[in-house]
Structure formats: C-alpha cells, structure tokens
Design goal:
Shape: globular
Structural class: mainly alpha
Distance between the termini: 38 Å
Strand order of the largest sheet: 1-2
Order of helices and strands: HHHHHEHHHEHH
CATH class: Mainly Alpha
Strand content: under 5%
CATH superfamily: CRISPR-associated protein Cse2
Number of helices: 10
Radius of gyration: 15 Å
Largest sheet: 2 strands, parallel
CATH architecture: Orthogonal Bundle
Number of domains: 1
CATH topology: Peroxidase, domain 1
Length: 170
C-alpha cells in the first residue's frame, strides 16, 4: 500500500517515542529480537508478532503506514545495539574509525548503498551498514531514511550528511 501521509520518526514526537519504546522492548525480550535478526527480508519480518506490535503502535497515531517499509525498519532495527542521537545515520557512516583517518564506511561503499532501490534490496545492505557502525546509530533518523528511501530528497540528505563529514572520501 502506498501512503500519502508524511511520517517522520525524527520530527513527530509521539511516533518517535513509540518506535523507541518498541525498540527498547526488543532489548528486554531476547526472543523477539532473535526472531527478527534471523529474518533475511522484509517479507520474513512480516511473519513476526513483534513487527505487528510496531505497526499497530505506529498506526495508533493516525494514518495507515506502508507495512513493507515498516517491516524493513523493524528488521534492520533488530540489529541496532545502541541508539545514539549525537549523529545522524550518514554522519555516523562518515565518522572516522577509531585510530584511523578514513570514514567508517568508505565513499565507494556509500555510493553503492545509495544506488540500492527498494525495501527488498535495501534490507541486507542496511544491516551490513549497521554492523559496520558497531550496531550504534540514530534510530529515528535511520527509520525515517528507510521509510522514505525512494525519495530523491532522502538520498540527497544522506549524501550531504556523509560528504560534509567525510572530506577525505570526496
């Protein structure tokens, strides 16, 4: 289902809090997190009860959401270990590795990532990015980027965040 409703996990406080509460609950219930982590696609995520808790929790604030995009978010967030609000997702990719001089995610890998098209193709590459970041990222920012991935504005914001913070990758 396509949705005309604009949802922002960063700007809408109720939706952000609902998402963070769901993610926090995953950390307390290892079974739900483990089941989501074993999924290899958003379709598999849609078979998990914890996905429906997230979807219904988010939809309780109004308009219906695209369930495939929410499944993508749920599956990816099961791999996040630490929510860090200090840097947005692409800024975190551009941050310098400890003891190094290069970005955590190379410029070439970042460009390949931006070329990914839909939720099915985006699922595993995003999990790889989360792992490269040590499982630490800004959950609301990541969720918003994943939900609106097909939007050129989303990819422009990601590119801007990355290249403004990783000048050696130009």
């Amino acid at each position: 289902m396509d949705t005309k409703y604009f949802v922002s996990f960063t700007r809408d406080t109720e939706i952000k809090n609902s998402l963070l509460s769901w993610w926090s609950h995953l950390g307390r219930t290892g079974g739900d997190r483990a089941a989501l982590r074993r999924c290899t696609s958003p379709v598999e995520v849609a078979f998990q009860p914890s996905f429906y808790r997230l979807l219904h929790g988010l939809e309780s604030y109004g308009n219906p959401l695209d369930s495939t995009r929410v499944a993508l978010i749920a599956g990816v967030l099961s791999h996040v270990k630490v929510n860090n609000f200090t840097l947005r997702f692409a800024q975190r990719m551009a941050s310098v590795k400890p003891g190094g001089t290069r970005a955590t995610v190379s410029g070439l890998r970042f460009l390949r990532y931006l070329r990914v098209e839909g939720p099915e193709e985006l699922y595993l590459p995003t999990i790889r990015m989360v792992r490269l970041l040590g499982g630490e990222c800004n959950i609301p920012d990541l969720a918003t980027a994943l939900y609106w991935w097909k939007s050129p504005e989303t990819k422009n914001h990601l590119a801007s965040d990355y290249y403004e913070n990783a000048p050696l990758e130009l």
